[in-house]
Specification:
The chain is of the alpha/beta class. The chain contains 17 helices and eleven strands. The chain has a single domain, classed as HypD, alpha/beta domain 2 (Rossmann fold, 3-Layer(aba) Sandwich). A six-stranded mixed sheet has the order 4-3-5-6-11-10, sandwiched between helices. Helix 12 links the parallel strand 8 and strand 9. The protein starts with 9 loop residues before the first helix and ends with a helix.
Length: 361
């Protein structure tokens, strides 16, 4: 079938559903990586359109969800200081640490500001030269270019009191971690299109080859997801394990080279803790030596904070595709958007939030 031009056409949706039903002969479990894809799947009832043989499970596709609790606690301690203006994207403000969240710190008098761009934090630093300005740099590869640009501009402007609390994570190592789990159920992936817009699709070929799974880079509209599923199921039924690009209207094979160059100038790859998943080798970014004077963890002596996860939250199992949100005993009872136990219920892209908002299967 052709790549999508009419990706919001309901007639095309029916055609893809029919095509999927026609080619599906065996049971398959497919994981979508991005939380935006998860929300589209749950909101539009895509799982219910598919044949019974197809099971969709939800991956660690939200950087808010996988930010470790000790990183949140570092943010809380820094944000509570009287000489600090703490800047963050809005979805991080309600993520619980071990005892509170950033909104609580703001209610207690901390200067915590929700911003829409990392460059907003740079401007705040220019406007407040006597204050320590800290930006919470969270995200997958998608937000890395903007965060890197903020560090680059702050350095060029000589902003001595600007720093970043960095919690960047990388998607391909997380996919490998999921696949290497002996309990893994995943037989094919829908990869996150916006990540590949920045980084390209080259990193997925070794994973596909090593673990014998098809990987389809997919967009976020319901029809993108249906076509991505059709492409992935087609490969599974034919015994193929290739990387394909459904999101051709946005993603190029090599990604955005200029963005990659800026990222490699500002960040270096390190092991990274993932909330609910533990440490994954080579799965995060940290500021390079050239930019380490902007590292808020060192500036505020936050290196040794370590915390345990909430024992009632099973977000790790959910993000590995081992369980669905409604299989958590706390789902919709002890854990709700107003009183979340874990980040997947907080984030606008979290799987638990999607099931709570739109209903479950």
């Amino acid at each position: 079938m052709k790549y999508l031009d009419e990706y919001r056409d309901p007639q095309a949706a029916r055609k893809y559903v029919a095509a999927i039903k026609k080619i599906t002969k065996k049971p398959w479990t497919i994981m979508e990586i991005c939380g935006g894809q998860t929300h589209a799947i749950v909101r539009y009832g895509i799982q219910n359109m598919l044949p019974d043989e197809i099971t969709l499970v939800h991956g660690p596709g939200c950087p808010v969800c996988v930010t470790p609790i000790e990183k949140i606690d570092k943010a809380l301690e820094i944000a509570a200081r009287s000489n600090v203006i703490f800047c963050s994207f809005g979805d991080m403000l309600r993520v619980p640490g071990s005892s509170k969240d950033l909104l609580t710190v703001r209610a207690e008098g901390g200067d915590v500001r929700a911003i829409y761009s990392p460059l907003d934090a740079v401007q705040i630093a220019r406007d407040n030269p006597d204050k320590e300005i800290v930006f919470f740099a969270v995200g997958f590869e998608t937000t890395a270019p903007g965060n890197a640009m903020a560090a680059y501009q702050a350095k060029e402007m000589g902003l001595k009191k600007f720093s970043m609390l960095v919690s960047h994570v990388l998607v391909p190592p997380a996919m490998e971690s999921i696949l290497s789990n002996t309990e893994c159920r995943v037989e094919g992936f829908l990869a996150a299109g916006h990540v590949c817009t920045v980084m390209g699709i080259e990193a997925y070929a070794p994973i596909s080859s090593r673990y014998k799974v098809p990987i389809v880079v997919t967009g976020f509209e319901p029809l993108d997801i249906l076509q991505g599923l059709y492409m992935c199921i087609s490969q599974l039924e034919q015994g193929q394990t290739n990387v394909e690009n459904q999101y051709v209207r946005v993603v190029e094979e090599h990604g955005n080279r200029l963005a990659q160059e800026l990222i490699s100038k500002v960040f270096r790859i390190i092991p990274r803790q993932w909330r609910g998943l533990g440490e994954i080798p080579q799965s995060g970014w940290k500021l390079t030596a050239e930019y380490e004077d902007l590292d808020a963890e060192y500036r505020f002596d936050m290196i040794d904070i370590v915390q345990k996860e909430c024992s009632e939250c099973i977000s790790g199992e959910i993000m590995q595709g081992l369980k669905k949100p409604m299989q958590c005993p706390a789902f919709a009872s002890k854990c709700t958007p107003d009183h979340p136990l874990g980040a997947p219920m907080v984030s606008a892209e979290g799987a638990c939030s999607a099931y709570y908002r739109y209903g479950n299967e």
